[in-house]
Amino acid sequence: MSTLYGNDIAVKAARTAVPYPPGSILSLVTWHQKEDPHWFGANIPGTVQSVNNWYSDGCTKKRVPSYTLYEGDPLKKSTGNTAVSTTSRIGWILDQQASVMP
Questions:
Q1: CA–CA dist 89, 80 (Å, integer)
Q2: pLDDT tens per residue, range 15-40
Q3: What would you report as the CA-atom Rg of the chain, rounded to the nearest whole angstrom?
Q4: Which of 30, 80, 83, 101 is the most buried (most CB within 10 A)?
Q5: Segments in the chain below pLDDT 50
């Protein structure tokens, strides 16, 4: 179970389908699921499994977006990711479409 959060700059960009401008911040939070004690058969978020943070500070050839991954219980900064898994994770996060509610 995951939710993608964004700051105001990122949300505005996501809703207008433009590239994320400098100052955009996205955080993908993933939880373990647990049974909902109030609704039979339903699941709700349990403990946090991981947090992926992506920051755009104005991408140029010399500056690239920042990315950090926190995992475990308690959450700790992950250092064991390969460039391929980090690149694919960032790509997946940036491909997500905003859900707009009335």
A1: 14
A2: 887 888 888 999 999 999 999 999 99
A3: 16
A4: 30
A5: 61
